[in-house]
Amino acid sequence: MKWVVHIFILILFSLYLPNTVLLAEPEGTVKGLKEQPLSSFIATPSKKQVILEWLTKSERETLGFNLYRSESREGEYVKINPDFILGRGSLTEGSKYQLIDKNVEDGRTYYYKLEQVDIRGNGTMYGPVNAAPK
Known about the structure:
Shape: elongated
CATH topology: Immunoglobulin-like
CATH class: Mainly Beta
Distance between the termini: 41 Å
CATH architecture: Sandwich
Helix content: 10-25%
CATH superfamily: Immunoglobulins
Number of domains: 1
Mean pLDDT: 81
Number of helices: 1
Number of strands: 8
Low-confidence stretches: 1-34
Radius of gyration: 15 Å
């Protein structure tokens, strides 16, 4: 029964927030032992730009983030942030981040991935999310 509720919630989110990635437990972890640090990653289209926002629950061992864009879901992703985005959260507190991608054309769909980089330099990718500027 529990899995039915999870599927129902995923369907609701996909209908009402289609550009939101809901994050599952990382592979190889036991639920409750390792908390997923990212709460959401959203791409919102606007006129001649895409607003990218993500929210962290905590930032244990997080150094920072990079954002990548592609013109197709399975295509090559290119880093779009000019400088590394330093983490602002802590072990117990998360933070909210935003980057506005203005290097887009209206009417085209763009795909984005978020890379979380830990203090050892290892990256974890989230996404993709997509948006088509109006």
